[in-house]
Amino acid sequence: MSSTLLAAALIVLAAAAISAAGFRLALRLRPRFRDEEQTDVKSVYFSMVGVLYAILLAFVVVVAWEQFNAAEEATHTEATRMSNLMRDAGAFPDADRQQVRSAVVTYAEAIVEHEYPAMAEGRASARGAAAYERIWTEFYGVDVKEEPAVTFYAESLERLNDLGEARRLRMLASRSTIPLPLWVLLIGGGIFTIAWLYPFHMANVRTQTVAIGTLGGFTGFVLFLVYALQHPFAGEVAIDPSVYEDLVTLWKGRL
To answer: Which of 79, 113, 138, 238 matches a 20 to 30 Å C-alpha distance to 185?
Structure first.
């Protein structure tokens, strides 16, 4: 999505226009389908359909939002663990400290420059993976024999494992999607719910057309919101890489 806001506006307008046009077309093809007979029965059924669809839509939005928050939390956790590793490396011998810090900074740069563009397309980055593996390689080569370096090394290994877990969660979040059957249910349910309003009788046809178009536009916006949230690293509502950029800015000049 090159422009999330533009895409959202187009989808809302298209959903509103299609909903309103569908009503006017149905009115032209069957002028009497809006007879006032059985209006009470129609209202009862519409209430049932509307409530069920609203519950489904709210549930999916909450799930998508929780997934988005989980992806953001994973990025913050990963950046925090990287910062911890930089601090802990201060207790290592000079050569080891330099190598570890350089590897962490290189990994942060790889995330910003390579992994984020790749995640926006739902794929992995070979350069990001290589930079991550280099951190482990540098830690395998660290040789500490005295305190406090031994203690800091042990703490660093725990933080490195936490970093790996956060990285894995971030990568999984970049490929998370709403299942296709659920999308079919969401879109089909929206169409059915809006179409159920067509037979209702309102004295002013224009007012009813506007009301149906408004509901269609709102439904389209919510569906687009779900679509945008299920891609936490793409579009203008994406999680930005500022936490990694800050780490690079803070430490690169100290290497």
So the answer is: 238
Rounded to whole angstroms, how far apart are CA atoms 102 and 139? 12
N residues, the chain: 255
Please tell me the distance from the alpha carbon of residue 245 to that of residue 230, in angstroms, as a whole number: 24
Which pLDDT tens digit goes with each residue over 19-64? Answer: 999 988 988 877 666 665 556 666 777 778 888 899 999 999 999 9
Q: Is the entire prediction scored with pTM above 0.85?
A: no
Please choose, from the candidates 69, 68, 42, the residue with its C-alpha nearest in 3D space to the C-alpha of residue 197.
Answer: 42
Give the C-alpha distances (Å, rounded to integers) separating 146 from 91, 159, 212.
10, 20, 74
